[in-house]
Specification:
By secondary structure, the protein is α+β, with helices and mostly antiparallel strands. 21% of the residues lie in helices and 31% in strands. A hairpin with a 2-residue loop joins strand 2 (11-13) and strand 3 (16-18).
């Protein structure tokens, strides 16, 4: 399954800045995506690859800060 994960609002935590609208696409069998450690790692790796930010270190790897939409 393909998911689009988007940052919901601006956040600065632990020296990491996330901006509303930053998004990545992740292919995963985890559902819901942020409910498993594997899914969270996939999302974090995608943000690291695209933006160079560690959302786990920013404590933003939850649905409070990320919007997840299943694309297909």
């Amino acid at each position: 399954m393909l998911y689009r994960v988007t940052v919901k609002s601006n956040r600065i935590a632990n020296g990491i800045r996330l901006e509303k609208g930053m998004s990545v696409e992740v292919v995963s069998q985890s559902f819901p995506l942020l409910s498993t450690q594997q899914g969270k790692e996939q999302v974090n790796n995608a943000f690291k690859a695209k933006y160079g930010v560690d959302i786990k270190k920013a404590c933003a790897d939850t649905s409070l800060y990320l919007d997840v939409v299943k694309i297909n």
